[in-house]
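Inputs:
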Amino acid sequence: MTAVSGIIAIPLMLRDPFCMDDDDVGVSELIGTILFVSGLATLLQSTLGVRLPIVQGSTITFVVPTLAILAQPQWKCPYAAAREEFGVSVNFTSMGLPAVGSEGHREIWKKRIREIQGAIIVASLFQVVIGLSGIMTFALKFIGPLTILPIITLTGISLYPVGSSMSSGQWWIAIMTMFLVTLFSQYINNLRIPTVSCTNGGCRRSHLKLFGLFPILLAMIIGTLICAVLTVTDVLPSNIGEWGYLARTDTSLNVLRKAKWVKFPYPGQWGTPTVSAVGVFGMLSGVLAAMIESVGDYFACARLSGAPPPPLHAINRGVFMEGVCCVFTGAWGSGNGTTSFSENIGVIGLTKVGSRRVVQVGGLMMLVLGCFGKFAALFLIIPQPVLGGTFMITFAMVTAVGLSNMQYIDLNSSRNLFVVGVPIFFGLSLSQWVKSNDAIHTGNETIDQLLTVLFSTGMFVGGVIGFILDNTIPGTDEERGIKKWREALVGGDEDSLPSEQEVYDLPLVSKYIRRLWCLRYLPISPTFIIKEGRSTGDHDTQGELNIAFDAIDTKATPSHES
Amino acid sequence: MTAVSGIIAIPLMLRDPFCMDDDDVGVSELIGTILFVSGLATLLQSTLGVRLPIVQGSTITFVVPTLAILAQPQWKCPYAAAREEFGVSVNFTSMGLPAVGSEGHREIWKKRIREIQGAIIVASLFQVVIGLSGIMTFALKFIGPLTILPIITLTGISLYPVGSSMSSGQWWIAIMTMFLVTLFSQYINNLRIPTVSCTNGGCRRSHLKLFGLFPILLAMIIGTLICAVLTVTDVLPSNIGEWGYLARTDTSLNVLRKAKWVKFPYPGQWGTPTVSAVGVFGMLSGVLAAMIESVGDYFACARLSGAPPPPLHAINRGVFMEGVCCVFTGAWGSGNGTTSFSENIGVIGLTKVGSRRVVQVGGLMMLVLGCFGKFAALFLIIPQPVLGGTFMITFAMVTAVGLSNMQYIDLNSSRNLFVVGVPIFFGLSLSQWVKSNDAIHTGNETIDQLLTVLFSTGMFVGGVIGFILDNTIPGTDEERGIKKWREALVGGDEDSLPSEQEVYDLPLVSKYIRRLWCLRYLPISPTFIIKEGRSTGDHDTQGELNIAFDAIDTKATPSHES
């Protein structure tokens, strides 16, 4: 439940940039696809990848470059343009545009999805290579909280236009929803609601902090119910041109009728993905950001679920498998990639359930639900302003999570103030400036487009500046927060934890892997060694690659034979 | 030198919003005025106000609402509009506009300054009342780092258009200047430059970290010199319409000839200030922000200069005097208010010179220099892109200083993440949204304008949301960072410090003040008591107002008789 509201949010954010207009059936198919591939990715990651109880879902780090790519003139949406010029109730067919939801219109939005699919597939191959080659664990030497801070912060901030354009459909409803989220998550989050929980041993009454567990979901439901009441009583205008119409709950009801009961998503369902240099390089920033975030999540997940910190081969395999899954999501055409879902790692902390099996079952459920067209269509009843309100708070929280990286660094150091301020400021201002001025003219159109897409992706600008400044301006590991950050990643006492082998070895095939000595040179193999005779399990003799993890390794778990 | 480059920056930022176009003589008069009033305010504050070695200067917290006020349609600049439509070399007189720099043109920009003057004067009266009544020290109970954080952060971020529009005159020059600032302040800041320092006892060689002390000033000078070389060699285009012309150093040379040798600024020099509700309420957010920042500065300044933490009466008197000085700056028409200059407090830390006399002499120098028209005109030689580059880094640092308030709060608390993220996100997005959508229609034009100005002032939106959330969402003082923040304000061991009386009593008049018992009820009097028989000097029996300063008072200095 925690993951689903986040996963289905992405297609709802992207429906306008994809030019899907009012084609609710199309949106419901996209929702089905993204649920399906998220389930698939969760199964693959938890079983063959990093093997931690991690839910893979959609990610807003891919949305930022997607918006930048689709902001190019050739992807301007003719439907949105027509509505803007001639009013919302414009007759599209009289303008020579195919009717909304017709094959002609579907081809228009499919073309945009195919462009994003191609970009995701090719950019993710890069991640596959990084995982397979073990580069990531090497690069971690140079990546600290001061690089991550601008990336995550700017991801959150730069999405505000998505939230505000949805909210503007009916500001009061959006504000009410934000108020509900605030109320649930901050004021009454500790209220214990009596519930009945049933297990094999029978049912018993218990008290759950429901509001604290599902503030977004509950706000969405209650916001929708309020809109339903306002729709039935006709307080909200029923005329499509009037302000507030978008808050009605009956505008998308026919999608429930039209959507197929069973719709099986398959690779290439929107046609063959198209690849362009601008798309690929633009998307790369999303892939890199998601990848860095994921590695942090592996450590957080291991800590919360009582597993030893992931060894290098598990990190590499996680990155590799995430890359493979991103290629899959690209091939299936969810319009998004996949990354580890931080929210669900938080849920492990709240529920104390850190079982890999639970996550695998959850993944299977998503995979199955994604095939039921009418289930996906249900989400379309949520009015846009309600979605906008919850998105705004979500983006604000992403911003704050990014900023919370400041806890690791020394804020009395003027070096750090510089390395914090400059990337955030330029990430914000350069992207705003490029968007509002058609300023980049190098003489080569492709390079112009590429630079425009990259520079209008705030997290790319901020991340690159932050990375360069943090690695060139003199400062100790302590000042830069790298020491504290690594300690926080690994967590405290680990004597009572299971062995690495137990948690991170691959199922069934381990025996055969151990026999093939050549696999020792493969960074994603559980038997991966860095130099002849030195294995990852043997902590005192780790090779060069492990310098990055010195801080971690000094506290690591008892070694095992390999 | 530290203060001057910051003070003169404000008129250079405001010349375009004021519609001063190429009237360099007018700008030089404005620079003279702001130097004069800054000197005056410094003298008043350090002598009769809080009596700490604090430099009063211009402040960007007033620039943000100024830009919002002047963004209203009636203040649109006809010169900028004409240049945008017909090219930069447009003939204004043929369009019915007075020639640039003529009396007619001066009246156009004077009208805008008068509107800002009126707004500053009336809004600052509010600060005078707050200081005089002692409300500020009471309000501090509710103001913590979580309120200050969004205010300062958003002040920095929201000024990026000023920096980027100046930089766009020649991006490469601007980038070079930013690079110089970065180089000086971060990479070679510890380089010791051999200098000769002379005192009464004769001259001797010493080594100063020049680049670390004056990174901005040196970058401005070197950037200007490079532009001068590029101008002389005609690398920069000499045609006014061409890109890069604005980086030339000879465009404003005639101002040196035209500017008067002596130009004495006086109150009402631009005519009688005009007052509008929109202006006053808009400016109020600047006044409040500057005031809160100043109180923090008093503590920082006292700590760094070895004085005991300021008692309530000194804080109240500081706020009161700053309000009075703001009224003066409004009357004189510097186009800005005045506030304590944080940079110079930093300089006390660097130079270990915390003498009140030094600051008073500095103030006197500014006051005198402000009367020399040709001195002020000198600053106009700095090319716009060089200014833009230094501004960008300055704004980025302001952003970072705002964010550094996170060091006091518990960043593992999801409450705090919410209280950090929501104000910053909405402060940014609401102001962007209001600027790009003409969306506020209440039916009353004045209210529409007022709301537009307030909502497009990010620091107002962020500050109000932060203040409300921080004071209503349950959280301990420790979690909210109030405890750590107050401790940091007061600083460590104070046994060796001079007594409060020595530092904060008023000169000459103290004897008479002590005789007038009725002054005990005046919050700005050194004899101020809160309840009958309880004086601020008597630390064990402080009244209700002091609750806010419990943390401070427990560590306070030896009491004195009153």
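Residues 531-562 of chain B have pLDDT under 50 and may be disordered. Flag for discussion at group meeting.
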